[in-house]
């Protein structure tokens, strides 16, 4: 069976991470993609060249000056044959370039446009990045820098999903539609478990359950996630612990006796969800 998006043509002017990751997702599902970069390129190419290359595998990449008449004409030619248009610029910048949805739709009514913005609606001009979205929604904890750009990447997945939804809508109406992906909304969604107390310190998934926690071993930490009753029962059985003996202290004592890799091998043999922590 062919990939689900085979035959779908994507044009992107999005740089940095959310847009390119979304386009890579669409390309991975069979879409053909042309990424249009400014003359200076994408900052990601300087920050993390290998990652940039990974996100553009199989795509045609062009460098175009959208501030010039020739550059805008080149993108317009691409949009004439496109199904999906991905952007990550502020609305005012798109309007200046004639690439806002109203302008694009008037020239190319078949195009479904996915605009990735920082904040929704009238607040879309407000500047921000992954770090500020995580900060506002409480995802930074005590102020540590995040281990990954979780909002950007979750936003890319949402953008890819919105592109697919827009194509479904077009199949029903015959015309392209606009979908907005606000990264601040994505961050609020990610923060849902914390906001509702599920992962707060000491809560159910915040260290309150001995069977869902991080433990030290003889060399480095492991993560234990024996959350469901059958996994808990299995854990106790293979460790030889009676239910009434289960405690964080008892598990810590046992796990300290072997290395993380030894516990990983043990867990695989006994169908226990456990994994060593990868060094950052």
UniProtKB/TrEMBL annotation:
Q: Which UniProt keywords apply?
A: Transferase
Record PANTHER family:
ALPHA-METHYLACYL-COA RACEMASE (PTHR48228:SF5), SUCCINYL-COA--D-CITRAMALATE COA-TRANSFERASE (PTHR48228)
Entries under Gene3D superfamilies matching the protein? Crotonobetainyl-coa:carnitine coa-transferase, domain 1, formyl-coa transferase, domain 3
Q: What is this protein called?
A: CoA transferase
GO MF? transferase activity
Q: What lineage does UniProt assign to this protein's organism?
A: Bacteria, Bacillati, Actinomycetota, Actinomycetes, Micrococcales
Q: Which InterPro entries match?
A: CoA-transferase_III (IPR050509), CoA-Trfase_fam_III (IPR003673), CoA-Trfase_III_dom3_sf (IPR044855), CoA-Trfase_III_dom_1_sf (IPR023606)
Which Pfam families does the UniProt record give? Answer: CoA_transf_3 (PF02515)
In the UniProt record, does the keyword Transmembrane helix occur?
no
């Amino acid at each position: 069976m062919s990939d689900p998006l085979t035959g779908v043509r994507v044009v992107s002017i999005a740089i940095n991470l959310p847009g390119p990751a979304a386009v890579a997702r669409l390309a991975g599902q069979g879409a053909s993609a042309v990424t249009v970069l400014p003359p200076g390129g994408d900052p990601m190419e300087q920050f993390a060249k290998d990652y940039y290359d990974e996100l553009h595998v199989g795509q045609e990449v062009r460098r175009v000056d959208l501030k010039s008449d020739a550059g805008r004409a080149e993108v317009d030619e691409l949009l004439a044959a496109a199904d999906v248009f991905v952007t990550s610029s502020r609305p005012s910048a798109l309007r200046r370039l004639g690439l806002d949805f109203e302008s694009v739709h008037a020239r190319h009514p078949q195009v479904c446009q996915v605009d990735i913005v920082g904040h929704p609606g009238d607040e879309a001009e407000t500047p921000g990045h992954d770090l500020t979205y995580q900060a506002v929604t409480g995802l930074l904890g005590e102020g540590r820098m995040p281990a990954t750009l979780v909002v950007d990447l979750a936003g890319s997945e949402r953008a890819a999903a919105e592109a697919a939804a827009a194509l479904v809508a077009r199949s029903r109406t015959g015309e392209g539609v606009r979908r907005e992906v606000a990264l601040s909304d994505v961050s609020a969604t990610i923060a849902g478990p914390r906001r509702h107390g599920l992962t707060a310190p000491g809560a159910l998934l915040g260290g309150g359950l001995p069977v869902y926690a991080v433990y030290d071993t003889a060399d480095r930490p492991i993560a234990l996630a024996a959350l469901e009753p059958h996994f808990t029962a299995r854990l106790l059985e293979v460790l030889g612990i009676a239910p009434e003996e289960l405690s964080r202290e008892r598990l810590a004592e046992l796990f300290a006796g072997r290395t993380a890799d030894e516990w990983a091998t043990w867990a695989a043999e006994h169908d226990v969800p456990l994994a060593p922590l990868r060094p950052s």
